[in-house]
Amino acid sequence: MINLEIKKKLIEDLKNLPFDSQKKVQEFAHALLITQSRGKSGKEMVRFSGKLNHEDAGELKKIIENGCEKVDINEW
Predict the structure, then answer these.
(1) CA-CA distance, 5 to 26, in Å (whole number)?
(2) pTM exceeds cut of 0.70
(3) What's the rounded Cα separation, in Å, for the pair 17 and 15?
(4) Do residues 10 and 18 lie in contact, with contact meaning Cβ atoms separated by under 8 Å?
(5) C-beta separation of 53 from 45 below 8 A
(6) Residue 76's closest CA among 35, 17, 16?
């Protein structure tokens, strides 16, 4: 359920933004919605604890560091 005060303030703020910024807000809100519906709780994931051996865990860590930790400061 949407909080009416938040909705009112959000609409007022959006009215004062240029179109490209409004689009970014909409995309961000949509991204939040998507991530909420895909997440799993820690309790659900604990059964996978200890499943990776040291070598596989190191390879996965390297892949994440090389591909996921890049920041594009011009993105927003």
Answers:
(1) 18
(2) no
(3) 6
(4) no
(5) no
(6) 17
Q: How many CA atoms lie within 13 A of 18 on its CB side?
A: 1
- CA–CA distance, 76 with 66 (Å, rounded to integer): 22
Number of neighbours of residue 29 by Cβ within 10 angstroms: 11
Question: Token pair for residue 73?
Answer: 């400061």
- Which tens digits make up the pLDDT trace of 34-72? 777 666 788 888 888 888 899 999 998 888 888 776 777
Q: If DSSP codes are grouped into helix, strand and coil, which group holds residue 41?
A: coil
Both structure tokens of 63: 């892949």
For the chain, strand residue ranges (E) read none
